[in-house]
Write a structure and sequence with these properties.
The complex is a heterodimer of chains A (about 575) and B (about 650). Helix content of chain A is about 45%, strand content about 15%. With about 575 residues, chain A is an alpha/beta fold. Among the domains of chain B are: about 200 residues, FAD/NAD(P)-binding domain (3-Layer(bba) Sandwich), CATH 3.50.50; about 90 residues, Orthogonal Bundle (Guanine Nucleotide Dissociation Inhibitor, domain 1). Classes of the chains: A alpha/beta (about 575), B alpha/beta (about 650).
C-alpha cells in the first residue's frame, strides 16, 4: 500500500539483535579479563573502577568485581586528597544507585553501599533514608532495601517512633508486607521498654491492644495473608521460659543423679558448667546424656561414688548449680529409700505455654472471640483455625481439650498438605495435657493409649514415670529422647507402626516391654534393648520379624539376658 | 493553506472527536492517506476541554444566535448531472439549555483578562440556536432564560450585584433582562459588599493565596489558563479498551494520567469514602471487622463469579439490589456495592449485569493504583488530540476551522466520491467518516436522540476533606425517584491540571430526563452551598461552596443504527458523539468496527515499529521520517503516572 513504512523482517531483526549481543558479550568478556589481570598485577587504580563500572552497570550481581572496587577504593583513600575523595564517593554513590535500578535486589550492590557509607566520615543518612523510601515506594516488599533501611536507621539513630510511622504508611498501602510487620516487632519493644522484672520483648497492654486491632483489620480483610497472622502470633508472644532446673532425681540402686533442664543444653568443659554439691561439699563428676551422645539435651546424668550414697547418714543432700542459667535445685535422699527427687510442678504456668504466652487472659480471651467470629465467616481458613487452637492452649489446655481436638480435625481436612505437621502438633498438645493430668493425680503411671499420637515429645518431663502405655497410636519410632525415662519399668507400645527402638536403650529399670503388632522387620532393630540390664519380658507378637526363619534363635542370641521373648 | 489541499485521499474524516480521531490514526498507521477536518477551531468536538476563557467563548457561540451569512462559494453549481449532494449542517445543534451562574465575588476590576490568553478566532460557521431544539423531547419552559457570564461584558456588572445573581444575557426568544436567583435566597447583601471591597487587593496575588482567602471571579478569569474544562466527563477504566489501545498503539506516550484516588458514596446526607480495594478495606474506620470480611468475601466471589454458578443462578431473574439482599451484606455494604462499585441502579440491572459490572470494576483495581480509574492530565480533551498526533506522525493531514459543505454522491453507483469544502474545493476520497453532528436535519430527521445532562462547577473545597487536598474522586448519587437517573459526580483537584489552585472542578453527568439544570440542580444543592459571605466567618461550613456553575444538555448520538439516517451511501460512515457512560469503550469499539469496514484484515493501531527497524531509502524519504527519529524505542510502556524511581543524578547531588 502507498505510504506504508518499510520495516525489517523478523529474520533481519533477529540477525541484527544477534550481532549486537555478540558484540556485547565480547566487550563484557574482555573487560572482565582486563580487570582480573590488573587485580593480579596489583594495579588497583581508577581504570579498574572504570572497567568494573561498565560490567557492574550491566550485571550488578558480579560479587568479585564489587570486591575489586573495594580494594581500589581502599587504596585510593590513602592516596587522594579529601576533596578528590569526596568527589570519588559521590560518583560511587551515584553509580551504586544506578546499579540498584538495574537490579533492586542485588545483594552485592546493597552490601557495597553499606560498606561505603560505613567508611564515610560524615555520611548523609537523610539521603539514604530518602533512597530507601523511594525504593520501597516501588516495591514495598524488597527485603534487601528493608535490611538496608534498618542499617541506616540504626546508624543515623532515627527515633523508633519515626520508623514505626514509616511502617504504618507502608502497611496502610499494602498490609501483605512481612518486612514491615517484622520491623514493627523490632521497634515496638524499643519504644516501650518493659521494666527489668517483666518478661523481655513484651508490650504494655494498651500498645498491645492497638496492635492487635491493626492486625485484626488485616486478617479480617484477607484471612489468607500469612504475614498478618505471623505478626499476630508474635504479639501474643512466644515467651522464652526462664532457664531452670526442672527436676533432680537420685537413685541409690543405679548410683546415679539425673538432672532435667528447661531447655536442651550441652554440659561439659568449655560449655555449660554444672556444679554438684553433695552434703554441701563439691563433688567432681562426669556428666553424660542418657543416650550417650554428646549434644544438647534436656536431660543429663552422672554416676555417684558409693560414699555419697551410703546409709550411714540419715540423709544425703544433692545440690546442683547451673552457673550459666543462674538456677539451682536441691534434693534429698533419705536413709532407707531407694530414690529421692525434687521437681517443679507441671501445673506451673510456664511449663508448656511456649507457643503463646503469658499475656493477660482477658486479652487472649477477646482474641479468641474475634477469631471464632472470623472462623464462622471463614470456616475453612487454616490460619484462623490454628490461631484458635493456640489461643485455647494458652488460655486453658485442659478445659479446651475436646474443642481443640475438633478444631484439629477441621484443620486437617482443610489443610491436608500439612496433615503430618498437624498430627505432630496435636500429639504434642495431647502429651502435654496428659502430663498435666498426671501431675494433678500425682501418679507415676502414664496412659497414652488410643490417642492417635504420631510423635513423642516432652519426654524429659517424664523422668519419674515408671509405667508408660503408648499402645494404639501411630508411632513409627521410640525416639532417643525416651532414654530419659530413667525410672521406667514397664513400657507398652502395642499396635503402633514402630520400626525402630533407638530410645529403648540403657533404661536401667526397664523390665517389661510390649511391642505387639508393630513393624519391626529385622531382629537387628532390637539391638538397643541389649543395653537394658533388667529387661526380662519382651512381647513381639504380630511383627514381621516373627515370620523370619530362625528369628527366635537370632533374638535369643541378641538378647541373652531377656528371659522370655514372645513371638 | 487550506485551498492548497491535495485533491485526493483514501479517507476523509469529518469531526475530531475521540472515535473519529482513533479511526484517523488507525487508517494513517495502516498507510492510508487521511484528511481530517473539523469546522471548529479546536480539536475534539464535544470531547474537547477548554480553558476558562475558552469555555466562555464556547458558551458565547451557543448563545449568539446570529445565522452567519455564508460567504462560501456555492457548491450547487459544482454538482454534475450524474451526481447528487448530501448537504452537511452548518450549525451544531448538539448543545442546548446552556445556563451559567456565577457565585464568586465580582470585583471592581473591569479589565481582567486571562493571563497569557490568546485571542481566539472563532470559526464563523458555528452558530447555535439553543432553544430551537427540533429533535429534543424537552423544550425549555418560557420563563427560563439562557444565562451566561462573560468577561467581555463587564459593563453590565456592578460591584454590588448579588453574588448568586446570574448575569443575564439576551436570548433571541427570551427578551428582556431577567434575574436568575439561586433557589436559596438567604444571603445578606451588606456582607457581600464588605467581602468585595476586601477582595480587591487580594486579587492582585492569585497564586499564593492562602487557603482561607476566597477565590474571586477575577482570579478565576486571571488564572483561566489553569482550567481545562471537559465537555464530557469520563474516566478510563484501567483495563478498559481505551487503555489497551493507548498502550498497544503507543499513543500513551503523548499523554499522562493520574489515578482516581477515591470512590465516594452519598448516603444519608453524608459523603463517605467507599472501601473498594484491599488496602481501603483494611484501612477503613467505618466498617466493623465482620463487615470487612463480608465485603472482601463478596468482592472476591465477584472477581470470579462465573466459576461459582450455583451461588447466583437461582437469583438470575431478580434485580441486582434484590440479589445483594440475599447475600451476607449489611445495608451499608449493599449500598456501596450497588451504587459505587457496580454503579448500577436499584431497579435497572439484574443479578448477572450487576456481577459483571462489579467484576469489571474489581478487575481494573490495582493495575495502576487503589481505584480502577485513570484521568488524563489536562483533561479528557487530550485524548482525541493524542490520536490526531499519531495520525499526523504517519502522514495524516489536519485542517481545523475547515468546514465541508456537502458530500458528493455518484448517482449510478450510489457511492460517495468526494466532498466540497468551504472554499468550494472538491476533494476525492474512497471513504468518508462523518460525525453525527455534521449531518443536516434532512439526513437525521428520523433519528431519535437521547440527551445527556451535564453540569460543571468550580468549588472551593472537596466534598470530602482529608489530609491530602489532592484527591480525585468519583461519587455516584442514585436517582431519588423511580425513573430518574443516577448522577455521576467527578471531582478534580488542581493536580489534574484542570483547575486553578484553591479550587476544585466538579463534573456532574446523567442521562437527561429534563433540562440539565432540572436534572442536576437537586444534587448540586445536596452537595454544595452557593458562595455567600456570611458563612465564610463560620469555618465549620461543611459543604463546599460554589464559585461558578454551568449547566447544559448534550446530544447523545451513541447506539444509533446506521439505518436511522436517511440515504447514506455505503462508504459514508457515521461516528457518534460522546455517550453518557463512564468509560470510553463505546468510542473504541466503534472506531475499531468502522476501521475494519474500511481496512478489512488490517491490524488495528499496531505498535509503531522500532526506529532502527525502519528502512529508509533516499527515494521514499518522506516528510515524516524526521518525526520517526524522535520516536523512542517501541515498548509497551504503560501510561502510568510517572512515579518511577528517580534518576541517580537527582539524589547524588
Amino acid at each position: 500500500m502507498h505510504g506504508r513504512l518499510k520495516v525489517k523482517t523478523s529474520e533481519e531483526q533477529a540477525e541484527a539483535k544477534r550481532l549486537e549481543r555478540e558484540q556485547k558479550l565480547k566487550l563484557y568478556q574482555s573487560a572482565t579479563q582486563t580487570v582480573f589481570q590488573k587485580r593480579q598485577a596489583g594495579e588497583l587504580d581508577e581504570s579498574v573502577l572504570e572497567l568494573t563500572s561498565q560490567i557492574l552497570g550491566a550485571n550488578p550481581d558480579f560479587a568479585t568485581l564489587w570486591n575489586c572496587r573495594r580494594e581500589v577504593l581502599q587504596r585510593l583513600e590513602a592516596q587522594k586528597s579529601p576533596e578528590e575523595l569526596a568527589a570519588l564517593v559521590k560518583t560511587e554513590l551515584g553509580f551504586l544507585e544506578s546499579c540498584l535500578r538495574v537490579n533492586p535486589k542485588s545483594y552485592g550492590t546493597w552490601h557495597h553501599r553499606c560498606w561505603l557509607l560505613g567508611r564515610l566520615p560524615e555520611p548523609n543518612w537523610a539521603r539514604e533514608l530518602e533512597l530507601c523510601a523511594r525504593f520501597l515506594e516501588v516495591d514495598e516488599r524488597n527485603f534487601h532495601c528493608w535490611d538496608y533501611r534498618r542499617f541506616v536507621a540504626t546508624q543515623a539513630a532515627v527515633p523508633p517512633a519515626e520508623e514505626l510511622a514509616f511502617t504504618d504508611s507502608l502497611i496502610t498501602r499494602n498490609f501483605s508486607n512481612y518486612s514491615s510487620w517484622h520491623y514493627r516487632s523490632c521497634l515496638l519493644p524499643q519504644l516501650h521498654p518493659q521494666p527489668d522484672t517483666g518478661p523481655q520483648g513484651r508490650l504494655p497492654e494498651d500498645v498491645l491492644l492497638k496492635e492487635l486491632e491493626l492486625v485484626q483489620n488485616a486478617f479480617f480483610t484477607d484471612p489468607n495473608d500469612q504475614s498478618a497472622w505471623f505478626y499476630h502470633r508474635w504479639l501474643l508472644g512466644r515467651a522464652d521460659p526462664q532457664d531452670a532446673l526442672r527436676c533432680l532425681h537420685v537413685s541409690r540402686d543405679e548410683a546415679c543423679l539425673t538432672v532435667s533442664f528447661s531447655r536442651p543444653v550441652l554440659v561439659g568443659s568449655g560449655t555449660e558448667t554444672l556444679l554438684l554439691m553433695v552434703d554441701e561439699s563439691p563433688l567432681a563428676v562426669e556428666w553424660r546424656t542418657p543416650d550417650g551422645r554428646t549434644r544438647p539435651s534436656h536431660v543429663w546424668l552422672c554416676d555417684l561414688p558409693a560414699a555419697s550414697l551410703n546409709d550411714q547418714l540419715p540423709q544425703h543432700t544433692f545440690h546442683v548449680i547451673w552457673t550459666a542459667g543462674e538456677a539451682q535445685k536441691e534434693c534429698v535422699l533419705l536413709k532407707g529409700r531407694q530414690e529421692g527427687w525434687c521437681r517443679d510442678s507441671a501445673t506451673d504456668a510456664q511449663l508448656f505455654r511456649c507457643e503463646l504466652s503469658v499475656e493477660k487472659s482477658t486479652v487472649l480471651q477477646s482474641e479468641l472471640e474475634s477469631c471464632k467470629e472470623l472462623q464462622e465467616l471463614e470456616p475453612e481458613n487454616k490460619w484462623c483455625l490454628l490461631t484458635i487452637i493456640l489461643l485455647m492452649r494458652a488460655l486453658d489446655p485442659l478445659l479446651y481439650e475436646k474443642e481443640t481436638l475438633q478444631y484439629f480435625q477441621t484443620l486437617k481436612a482443610v489443610d491436608p498438605m500439612r496433615a503430618a505437621y498437624l498430627d505432630d502438633l496435636r500429639s504434642k498438645f495431647l502429651l502435654e495435657n496428659s502430663v498435666l493430668k498426671m501431675e494433678y493425680a500425682e501418679v507415676r503411671v502414664l496412659h497414652l493409649g488410643h490417642k492417635d499420637l504420631t510423635v513423642l515429645c516432652h519426654l524429659e518431663q517424664l523422668l519419674l514415670v515408671t509405667h508408660l502405655d503408648l499402645s494404639h497410636n501411630r508411632l513409627r519410632a521410640l525416639p532417643p529422647a525416651l532414654a530419659a525415662l530413667r525410672c521406667l519399668e514397664v513400657l507398652q507400645a502395642n499396635d503402633n507402626a514402630i520400626e525402630s527402638l533407638d530410645g529403648v536403650t540403657s533404661l536401667p529399670r526397664l523390665q517389661e516391654l510390649s511391642l505387639c503388632n508393630n513393624r519391626l522387620r529385622q531382629p537387628a532393630v532390637l539391638q538397643p534393648l541389649a543395653a537394658c540390664p533388667r529387661l526380662v519380658l519382651l512381647h513381639l507378637q504380630g511383627n514381621p520379624l516373627c515370620h523370619a526363619v530362625g528369628a527366635s534363635e537370632h533374638l535369643a542370641e541378641l538378647l541373652p539376658a531377656v528371659n522370655s521373648i514372645l513371638t | 493553506m487550506a485551498d492548497n489541499l491535495p485533491s485526493e485521499f483514501d479517507v476523509i474524516v469529518i469531526g475530531t472527536g475521540l472515535p473519529e480521531s482513533i479511526i484517523a490514526a488507525a487508517c494513517s498507521r495502516s498507510g492510508l492517506r487521511v484528511l481530517h477536518v473539523d469546522s471548529r477551531n479546536y480539536y475534539g468536538g464535544n470531547w474537547a476541554s477548554f480553558s476558562f476563557s475558552g469555555i466562555l467563548s464556547w458558551l458565547k457561540e451557543y448563545q449568539e444566535n446570529s445565522d452567519i451569512v455564508n460567504e462560501s462559494p456555492t457548491w450547487q453549481e459544482q454538482i454534475l448531472e450524474n451526481e447528487e449532494a448530501i448537504a452537511l449542517s452548518r450549525k451544531d445543534k448538539t448543545i442546548q439549555h446552556v445556563e451559567v451562574f456565577c457565585y464568586a465575588s465580582q470585583d471592581l476590576h473591569e479589565d481582567v483578562e486571562e493571563a497569557g490568553a490568546l485571542q481566539k478566532n472563532h470559526a464563523s460557521v458555528i452558530s447555535g440556536n439553543p432553544t430551537e431544539a427540533a429533535h429534543s423531547a424537552y423544550q425549555p419552559s418560557e420563563d427560563e432564560s439562557l444565562c451566561t457570564v462573560s468577561c467581555e461584558m463587564p459593563t453590565e456588572q456592578t460591584p454590588s450585584s448579588d453574588q448568586e445573581t446570574a448575569l443575564e444575557i439576551n436570548d433571541v426568544e427570551v427578551t428582556g433582562e431577567k434575574e436568575k436567583r439561586y433557589d436559596d435566597k438567604t444571603h445578606a447583601k451588606s456582607a457581600s459588599e464588605e467581602e468585595t471591597s476586601e477582595n480587591v487587593p487580594i486579587a492582585e496575588d492569585t497564586v499564593l493565596q492562602p487557603k482561607k482567602n476566597r477565590i474571586t471571579y477575577s482570579q478565576i478569569i486571571k488564572e483561566g489558563r489553569r482550567f481545562n474544562i471537559d465537555l464530557v466527563s469520563k474516566l478510563l477504566y484501567s483495563r478498559g479498551l481505551l487503555i489497551d489501545l493507548l498502550i498497544k498503539s503507543n499513543v500513551s506516550r503523548y499523554a499522562e494520567f493520574k489515578n482516581i484516588t477515591r470512590i465516594l458514596a452519598f448516603r444519608e446526607g453524608r459523603v463517605e469514602q467507599v472501601p473498594c480495594s484491599r488496602a481501603d478495606v483494611f484501612n477503613s474506620k467505618q466498617l466493623t471487622m465482620v463487615e470487612k470480611r463480608m465485603l472482601m468475601k463478596f468482592l472476591t466471589f465477584c472477581m470470579e463469579y462465573e466459576k461459582h454458578p450455583d451461588e447466583y443462578k437461582a437469583y438470575e431473574e431478580i434485580t441486582f439490589s434484590e440479589y445483594l439482599k440475599t447475600q451476607k451484606l449489611t445495608p451499608n455494604l449493599q449500598y456501596f456495592v450497588l451504587h459505587s462499585i457496580a454503579m448500577t441502579s436499584e431497579t435497572a440491572s439484574n443479578t448477572v449485569d450487576g456481577l459483571k459490572a462489579t467484576k469489571n470494576f474489581l478487575h481494573c483495581l490495582g493495575r495502576y493504583g487503589n481505584t480502577p480509574f485513570l484521568f488524563p492530565l489536562y483533561g479528557q480533551g487530550e485524548l482525541p488530540q493524542c490520536f490526531c498526533r499519531m495520525c499526523a506522525v504517519f502522514g495524516g493531514i489536519y485542517c481545523l476551522r475547515h468546514s465541508v459543505q456537502c458530500l458528493v454522491v455518484d448517482k449510478e453507483s450510489r457511492k460517495c466520491k468526494a466532498i466540497i469544502d468551504q472554499f468550494g474545493q472538491r476533494i476525492i476520497s474512497k471513504h468518508f467518516l462523518v460525525e453525527d453532528s455534521y449531518f443536516s436535519e434532512n439526513t437525521c430527521s428520523h433519528v431519535q436522540y437521547r440527551q445527556i445532562s451535564r453540569s460543571v462547577l468550580i468549588t472551593d473545597r472537596s466534598v470530602l476533606k482529608t489530609d491530602s487536598d489532592q484527591q480525585i474522586s468519583i461519587l455516584t448519587v442514585p436517582g431519588e425517584e423511580p425513573g430518574t437517573f443516577a448522577v455521576r459526580v467527578i471531582e478534580l483537584c488542581p493536580s489534574t491540571m484542570t483547575c486553578m489552585k484553591g479550587t476544585y472542578l466538579v463534573h456532574l453527568t446523567c442521562t437527561s430526563s429534563k433540562t440539565a439544570r432540572e436534572d442536576l440542580e437537586p444534587v448540586v444543592q445536596k452537595l454544595f452551598t452557593p458562595y455567600t459571605e456570611t458563612e465564610i466567618e463560620n469555618e465549620e461550613v461543611e459543604k463546599p461552596r460554589l464559585l461558578w456553575a454551568l449547566y447544559f444538555n448534550m446530544r447523545d448520538s451513541s447506539d444509533i443504527s446506521r439505518n436511522s439516517y436517511n440515504d447514506l451511501p455505503s462508504n459514508v460512515y457515521v461516528c457518534s458523539g460522546p455517550d453518557c457512560g463512564l468509560g470510553n469503550d463505546n468510542a473504541v469499539k466503534q472506531a475499531e468496527r468502522l476501521f475494519q469496514l474500511i481496512c478489512p484484515n488490517e491490524d488495528f493501531c499496531p505498535p509503531p515499529p522500532n526506529p532502527e527497524d525502519i528502512i529508509i531509502d533516499g527515494d521514499s524519504l518522506q516528510s515524516e521520517t524526521s518525526e520517526f527519529s524522535v520516536i523512542p524505542e517501541a515498548n509497551s510502556e504503560t501510561p502510568k503516572e510517572s512515579t518511577s524511581l528517580g534518576n541517580p543524578e537527582e539524589t547524588s547531588q
